Fold this protein.
Amino acid sequence: MTLLTYAALFLASVVVTLGGCALFTNSIEWLGKRLKVPDGAVGSIFAAVGTTLPETSIPIMAIFFGAGQDRIDVGLGAILGAPFMLSTLVIPILAGLLLLYAKLGKRAATFRLNYGEVRVDLQFFLIAYGLTLACVFVSFRLTHYLVAASLMALYVYYMRIKFSGQQGDQTALDPLMFARRSTMPSYGMIGLQSAVGLGGLVAGAHLFITAAKALSADLGVSPLLLALLIAPLATELPEMSNSFLWLYRRKDTLAVGNVTGAMVFQGTFPVSVGLVGTDWNLGSSAVATIALALVAVGVTFGQVLWGGHWRPWLLSACALLYLGYALYLYGS
């Protein structure tokens, strides 16, 4: 393909993703309002799980229904790449956009968050991913099965905590796009719009990864770089798009919860699939992604624990972990 074709595919993926994002975020906000659930659950559960389910099918299909060693590499790359990218790239970009919006006079340069809920998300991720790393050094399969079961139970407990929170003020919502004249749209219309929006997000990610695979082949990029960095960049486009849009609309709880909630989900359910379906024998590059993700989340958690809030410039600096690792893989 020519450079113009690549550019057209990337542009089309962005347009489709943004369109799906607008539909999905609008419908998810209305679903939360109709169900009277806390804002934290809307972002961390509804939006996060909704946008991660399509990409979660990648490791399931690769590990349990694929053939050959390549299936293991693809599955593990999908499992480990997503948390790594969310923690070392998406959160830093979110902080950078906050600073950009502030410079443009769109909002203040501080996150408006319930940091107690943020702390809960980060704690759950650190526990889950800490167990994930520990299993690398334990070859006993029964231990892997027990940890997998523990991670699933941990996520169920996490959902219980999120749904028990206080409901936020969700009165100032734009009309549902599929029912603009309705002051309280039906669940059917909300579900239909959610499905169409999610379909747009998946289609946009598919276009992106198609272009990325072709470009990486032409440039001679290693398969590991594609599995751990490029593919997750495409599959995490839904989370990024949703969060960036919510941040622009000053709905910080939804924006941040969408990312941190996705991290908790990605650090529990897909990891359980990997622990059960493979021998969890990871190479040094794969182990490095787990360690770097833990470092990045440790920095974000430390800011909340000791400073009481996030400093956007310090969050943005965590992107150096992603860039450094990408350069290391590219040069190896």
